[in-house]
């Protein structure tokens, strides 16, 4: 999947979210979308790496300590 395809999925989701609000102003939409995307990405990567944090951090291009912090934030630690 290309970056463009991912961007299209985000656009669809954002449009649906705003449509579902039926005119109500959204609150903290940026944070909500970033948290949702980050959590989903972490779940997939951790599953695919069989919860190998070193490998997952490498795949994600981040430090292992940063990954651990993000896993705790999203309550994805065992």
Write the layout of secondary structure elements.
Layout: H1 3-20, H2 29-48, H3 53-60, H4 64-73
Helix pairs in contact: 2-3, 3-4
CATH class of the domain at 25-78: Mainly Alpha
Can you tell me the overall shape? elongated
How large is the radius of gyration? 15 Å
User: Number of DSSP strands?
Assistant: 0
Distance between the termini: 30 Å
**Proportion of strand residues:** under 5%
What is the CATH architecture term of the domain at 25-78?
Orthogonal Bundle
Q: Profile the largest sheet.
A: none
Kindly describe this structure.
This protein is mostly helical. It has a domain at 25-78: Orthogonal Bundle (Arc Repressor Mutant, subunit A), CATH 1.10.10.60. It is 72% helix and 0% strand. The protein is built from four helices and no strands. It has helices at 3-20, 29-48, 53-60, 64-73. The radius of gyration is 15 Å and the shape is elongated. The N and C termini lie far apart (30 Å). The model has no long low-confidence stretch (mean pLDDT 96).
Characteristics:
mainly alpha; single chain; Arc Repressor Mutant, subunit A; 4 helices; 78 residues; elongated; 72% helix
Summarize the model shown.
The protein is built from four helices and no strands.
């Amino acid at each position: 999947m290309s970056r463009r395809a991912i961007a299209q999925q985000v656009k669809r989701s954002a449009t649906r979210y705003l449509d579902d609000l039926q005119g109500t102003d959204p609150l903290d939409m940026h944070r909500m979308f970033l948290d949702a995307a980050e959590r989903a990405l972490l779940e997939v990567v951790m599953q695919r790496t069989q919860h190998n944090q070193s490998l997952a951090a490498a795949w994600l291009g981040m430090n292992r300590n940063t990954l651990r912090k993000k896993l705790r934030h999203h309550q994805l630690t065992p």
